[in-house]
Design brief:
- With about 80 residues, the protein is α+β, with helices and mostly antiparallel strands.
- It has one domain: Ribosomal Protein L24e, Chain: T (Roll), CATH 2.30.170.40.
- Helix content is about 25%, strand content about 35%.
- The mean pLDDT is about 95.
- This is Large ribosomal subunit protein bL28.
- Keywords: Ribonucleoprotein, Ribosomal protein.
- One of its GO terms (cellular component) is ribosome.
- GO terms for molecular function: structural constituent of ribosome.
Length: about 80
């Protein structure tokens, strides 16, 4: 499975390593992802999601139910 946040769709970015002599080589910036279990009280069940840490802060702020509803409306979660 690829390293993509299941709630926000964040994925790896491509950039450059730049040396002191300004030589540039390609590199990859991976998203900061963690695998986390969440309890959904409406469904009385647990789900496991691979989420970015910024999405985790959003879940802590608005709740898991609202975050899942928002992700479904944006098409990131099925």
């Amino acid at each position: 499975m690829s390293r993509v946040c299941e709630l926000t769709g964040k994925r790896a970015m491509v950039g450059n390593n730049v040396s002191h002599a300004m030589n540039k080589t390609k590199r990859k910036f991976d998203a900061n992802l963690i695998k986390k279990r969440f309890y959904i009280p409406e469904e009385d069940s647990w789900i496991t999601l691979k989420v970015s840490t910024s999405a985790l802060k959003t879940i802590n702020k608005i709740g898991i139910s609202a975050a899942i509803k928002d992700a479904k409306s944006k098409g990131f979660l099925k």
